[in-house]
Amino acid sequence: MSVAKPRLVVLGTGFAGYSMLLRLPRDLYDVTLISPRNYFLFLPLLPSAVTGTVELRSIVEPVRRRLGHLRFLEAAAQSVDWERRVVRATGAVDGSAFETPFDLLVIAVGSRPHDYGIPGVSTYALRAASIEDAREIRSRILSQFARADLPGLADDEIQRLLTFAVVGGGPTGVEVAAEIHDLLREELKRAFPVLAPRARIVLLEGGARVLSQYRQALAGYAERHFRREGIEVRTQTTVAAIGPREITLKDGGTLLYGMAVWATGNAPTGFVSCLEGLPIEKGRIGVDDRLRVRGREDVFALGDCAAFGDPPLPATAQVAQTQGKYLAKQLRDRARGRAAKPFRFRPVGMLAYVGGGRALADLPHSQWSGRGAWIFWRSVYLTKLVSLPNKAKVLFDWIKAALFGRDLSRF
To answer: Can you give the CATH number for the domain in which 292 is found?
Structure first.
């Protein structure tokens, strides 16, 4: 008589949950994966997809293709009944409600962009956190040029339409600004030879410098490179409100803009905000040294939604992926009666693209910038892509963009 496997429910298809499931042996648990997104998104290359350097479908992995052995429910988790040990969820397609029982629960639902309560952010600014965001930014850039090209517009209105503001000087904001600049310089300059030189990219950062997580020398290189390329970098500039045509700054100034991208901060998802009975620390779930939710032996949290360590580890893809690999090993050892070792995070370094075939490499024992760092940046991300098909597609996207340019179709 066969023994029933423990029911393992995993919430989320981001770096944390997906990395864990790829490495978890198939025969140990009865696994159910719940996520409203039926694919894994390779977020580090999302800024490149914003402008078509790589295509959107090249950086997504369909869940059912790689994880066909488990039960996948395309739905959004809404709450957890801790006494009955069930997850309540609603279908992503039709909104129908259902419940899924669990013996072990893994919460890896990520985070969402934080607007800090600033008026107008959710209404007028675009985000850079999903495939839908990337598609919208790409379409909006092309729409702004199409509008500015119409006859009869005043010069100041053309200037406003072609002003692209990026709020947030972290890696995402810097890379989005860099990719937009590359698109202007390499494609739009040929398609709109009169308008492209008038386009303006403004990077707004509330802190003293961009890329505050990077070493001072590399952050300084990024700022100098941006200024040489004509990208305006405004540090110690805090946004007070965003309207349909202008950004109001806390110092009383304003910036007229045509498109604004909000790329700063993380906030808890609605699901995490609604959880009851869990230790929540600044919007993240507190976990112990084995990624167990404090006070609950059979519930784990990892990735952006989890607060591990003091101070908590940053919400990055590198941290989430490392935690996913660790939890897969821990669950394997648990099923076989072995004790789990504590989680230890060893950073392997940070990379950032700054445009013009230049990048930054901030590694534990070395740092460098420029074209060599850009080649290293591309090599690392190519190897980090999950599947061979996606590695091939991204490589061909890069070659295609270099030889034939990016596609400027708007749809």
So the answer is: 3.50.50.60
Cα separation, 28 vs 280, whole angstroms: 30
- Which among 102, 98, 67, 66 is positioned nearest to 83, based on CA atoms? 102
Whether the CB-CB separation of 140 and 259 falls below 8 Å is answered with yes
| 364: its two tokens | 């534990």
pLDDT digits (tens, 9 = 90+) for 187-205: 999 999 999 999 999 999 9
| C-beta of residue 279 within 8 angstroms of C-beta of residue 85 | no
Which DSSP category does 313 fall into? P
Q: What DSSP line would sit under 391-407, residue for residue? A: HHHHHHHHHHHHHH---
Are 101 and 141 within one domain?
no
Listing DSSP states for 62-93 in one string gives EHHHHSTTSEEEEEEEEEEETTTTEEEEEETT
Could you tell me the CATH number of the domain that includes residue 243? 3.50.50.100
Domain closes at, from 335, 357, 379: 335
In which residue are the tokens 């939890």 written? 327
pTM above 0.70, yes or no: yes
Partners of 34 in beta bridges: 11, 73
167, 263 contact by CB (below 8 A): yes
d(CA 331, CA 29): 9
**Kind of pairing, strands 7-11 and 30-35?**
parallel
How many residues are present in the chain? 411
Instruction: State the number of CA atoms in the 13 A half-sphere of 159 facing the CB.
Output: 6
Q: Are 85 and 296 in contact (CB under 8 A)?
A: no
Neighbour order of strands in the sheet with 350-355: 350-355, 358-363, 366-370
Within 10 angstroms of residue 318's Cβ, the number of other Cβ atoms is 18
Q: Are both 155 and 258 inside the same structural domain?
A: yes
Could you read off the pLDDT of 337-385 as tens digits, one per residue? 998 899 999 999 999 999 999 999 999 999 999 999 999 999 999 999 9
Alpha helix (H) residue ranges in 125-170? 131-148, 155-161
| Pair 19, 137 in one domain | no
- Residue 282's domain comprises 7-111+268-335
